[in-house]
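Dissemination and training. As part of the outreach component of the grant, students in the summer workshop were shown how a complex can be specified as a set of sequence lines and then modelled as a single object. The example used during the hands-on session is reproduced here so that future cohorts can follow it. Participants entered these lines:
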Amino acid sequence: MKKNIFIICILILGPVFLQAQTHDYKVVFDLTSSEAMAHKAVIRWINEISKSTPDAKMEVVFYGQSLNMVVKNKSEVSDDVTKFAATPNISFKVCAIAMKNHNIDKSDLLPGVEIVPDGIYEIITKQKEGWGYIKASF
Amino acid sequence: MKKNIFIICILILGPVFLQAQTHDYKVVFDLTSSEAMAHKAVIRWINEISKSTPDAKMEVVFYGQSLNMVVKNKSEVSDDVTKFAATPNISFKVCAIAMKNHNIDKSDLLPGVEIVPDGIYEIITKQKEGWGYIKASF
Amino acid sequence: MKKNIFIICILILGPVFLQAQTHDYKVVFDLTSSEAMAHKAVIRWINEISKSTPDAKMEVVFYGQSLNMVVKNKSEVSDDVTKFAATPNISFKVCAIAMKNHNIDKSDLLPGVEIVPDGIYEIITKQKEGWGYIKASF
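and obtained this result:
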């Protein structure tokens, strides 16, 4: 009986301790700015974090006025976006509603950039899953 | 005895599973900007979310320089604020300290707009309650 | 046996109830803006919060373009930073990577200002520990 209760406790409390022990780096960047300065800053942060913590998970969500950062012939950081989008731990996700509002087609996006139905829902879902949140604005 | 332990497990773990299963849309918007562009963006987001997810809970907290959005004869989106403030799932809450700093009286606010003692505390309380957080800045 | 299970439940559920009952005020401010207006706003918020809730824990993390706020002879709020940095519940933490990028040395910082290896990791760690998050941008 005592053994059973011990096992139950492990099953219940295990995840709590595991959560406390994880040191993983997971961050979602919220980007709505049209300014190239903000776009370059996000690339710089991704670059620095991926160097210091190669297994860090990073995601940038684009909505509002920020979509040019991931649009061909408009992005000032297209090479960086394409390079990082090809790595497994980094993703760039564009809000479909914002794409529609700005007449941006799937074919206009840089390679590897993904589409999500609702950028805000994507962000708050990541928050709920325990990802850190950083608003990329100045 | 085994049955009792089973019931205890259900009681303990039930809320954990329930929390993981909820797909509800709850988001608090942090608005400090004086720019009408930001005010219109927040209204557009509320409009789009309330169309796609009619039972989404949304709250906008006003402090810093953003109060004109909810002040009569100053807001550029007064009709939208009044309309959404009348719906049960959407609320607009102004920081009382910011009101005092900007000499704004309760009677200056658009109908349905609420007052909270401390806008920052309102936001971090919502975060603690599991609401998603979005800074509305560009 | 029943007594044991009762004790186990208390041990397991205790922290859950405690967490729900805490009303503590803990907030991390994310500051990347170079604008003195943003720097003054953060000082005003710290001032107001520390008056209404003397035991509130507050931390400002500086990265991006915001470092002048904590640099000698450049900060427009140096007296306030120095004063608040001397209190036990308020801390000002600068990202070491941003310091390097802006050629800022430890000796350039106002007294009491601390250095963290990675400003973004500092912020998301605080979020994970249950601190509220406020992006200080306009």
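Helices of chain C lie at 2-21, 36-52, 78-85, 96-101, 119-128. Students were then asked to discuss how this feature might be tested experimentally.
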